[in-house]
Structures are given as structure tokens and as C-alpha cells.
Amino acid sequence: MTEKSWQKLIVHCPLATTESIASFITDLTGTGVEIADDKHSADRAFIIGYLDTDDSCLTDKLAAVRGYIIDIFKQLPQFPQATMELDSIENQDWQRKWKEGFKPFNLSENIIIKPSWEKYTPGPKEKVIEIDPGMAFGTGLHASTRLAAELMETRLSANPSLPERVLDVGTGTGILAIGSALLGCRKVTAIDNDPEAITAAANNIAANRMSDYIEVSTTNLSDLVGPYEMILANIIHNTLVEMAPVLVKLLTPGGNLILAGILNGKQAENIINVYNDAGLTMIESRNSDEWAALSFGKQ
Q: In the β-sheet with 127-130, what is the strand arrangement from edge to edge?
């Protein structure tokens, strides 16, 4: 049997950008990453990811990482640029190595993410989402996912009754949709325009026994019929701006809209202005490093 070979991707970057870049590479490759301290600089770290040399999309994936890094540092000019290099590596036990470092963690106060190979005994209020990063793209490690989950749990716990209908736009692996169902929402719609994401989300929803409560599809946002009491959208700034009229229309009066995937500063300020002009009121914001998530209400 021919030994498989891999490209070892090494990104050297400021600590403030480590989380977002590592999450992007994890989502892109589906194989996880290693993060190592730079012994010569307390402000920088190494991110090590692995890409299959035989992957027909290898060139596109490397270009995507370069493009993402360039975009991040355009938004954060105060930090020195990251560097990226490649090295070949034979098929070894690297999957086992990074699996050893992927442990259960809190997505929000009471939602726990865990891989299938780890044991975890939840507390009285905790809900566990089981996700295998090697089977999909997206594990909840990204700050924007955590911020959205925190706001979602906060809003659900603050309301006297749970939303009758929840919409998760750009569901990805379905983490936010699964989280809302675990917290008691019983009619959740999850959509994404990427068929591969829908397949991954459907598999994760089934693995977490939430198929009775979550409907997942590639249905176009404009084809949905509201209203929804809660809408979740963890995407990117420009798409959230474009979606504003439709999202506001789909949200019921008294409902809650949670937006994430937004960079702090100008992007967050612009989103607030756009959605305020569309008739919503900002209720709460959460920040983590360079990322922000925003919660809006509709009078």
C-alpha cells in the first residue's frame, strides 16, 4: 500500500490572530491543527496544519489561507504580518497527535463541545454537542461561533418562553442549530448554500439525535416564510449587510437577531448602523480579541 504524503503548513503569527487563523485552517482542511508557542517571542505562535498532497484542491486551499491572512492583517494593521511556509511530511501518526490535544470545551456557559473519542460527564445544566473535526469543517473553536452561542444562550435564558421558531442562516456544521435545540427550541430551520455543509450539518444533527427538531436544507433565504422568533447568522460582514432587509422582514416583532462573524471596530459599527436603520435596536454585544457578535431586538 502506497504511503500517503502530506503538506505541512506552518503559519507564524501574532498571538492575537492565532485563534481565528487556526480555526480557518481547521475548517478548510477538516484535520485539525497544532498550536505551538514561539520560544523566541512571547507575542507570536506557530500554527501547524496538514493538507493531503493528492488533494485536487490543494492549490486552492493554500490560496484561501493566504487570502484569509492578508484580509485579517488589512483589518489589523497594528500587528506585524504573519508568515506562511510549506514542508512535506510522510504519513505518520499525526492524526493521533492532534486528536490528543482536542479536548471537550465550553462553547457557551452550558453548551459543551466534545469529540466522539473523549469521555465527558455533563453537569446538571450542561448540554453536550458531539462533533468530530475530521468528519466536517467547523468545530466551534472559532471565536465568532462561541460569541454567537453565548448570546443565543443568554437571550434564551432571559425570555420567559422559548422561541416557537428559530432560523440558523449559514449553518455550516450545524453547531448553533444543534445548540438551540439542546436548549429546548423545538422547531429549528438551518440553511446553507453549500451542499457539503448541509451534508455535514445533517450528519451532526443525526449524531446528536436532534433530527426531530431541526430541518436542514439549501433553501434560499429569500424563499423562506417567517416569522421567526430568533434568527442566528454567523457569516461575514458584507453578506450580513446584504441580508439585512430579508432578515429584518423574517424576524417577528419582539424577536431576537444574533449576528456574528464580524470584526471589531469599523465592521461592527457599520453592522449596528445598517440594522438600526432597518428598524432594529441593539440589545447586547460580545467581543473576543478582534471578533464581535451583536444581538438585536425588533419592537
A: 105-106, 111-114, 127-130
Work out the pLDDT band at 273, boundaries 50, 70, 90: very high
Instruction: Collapse the DSSP code of 181 into the 3-class scheme (helix H, G, I; strand E, B; otherwise coil) and give the result.
Output: helix
Range 5-101 has CATH code 3.40.1010.10: no
Domain layout of the chain by residue ranges: 5-101, 105-298
Residue labelled with grid coordinates 505551538: 36
Report the distance separating Cα 44 and Cα 56, nearest Å: 32
- pTM confidence score: 0.74
Secondary structure element (H or E) that encloses residue 260, with its range: strand 251-263
Q: In which element (H, E) is residue 298 found?
A: strand 291-298
Q: Are 170 and 248 in contact (CB under 8 A)?
A: no
The fold adopted by the segment(s) 105-298 is Rossmann fold (3.40.50)
For residues 165 and 24, which has the higher predicted lDDT (pLDDT)? 165
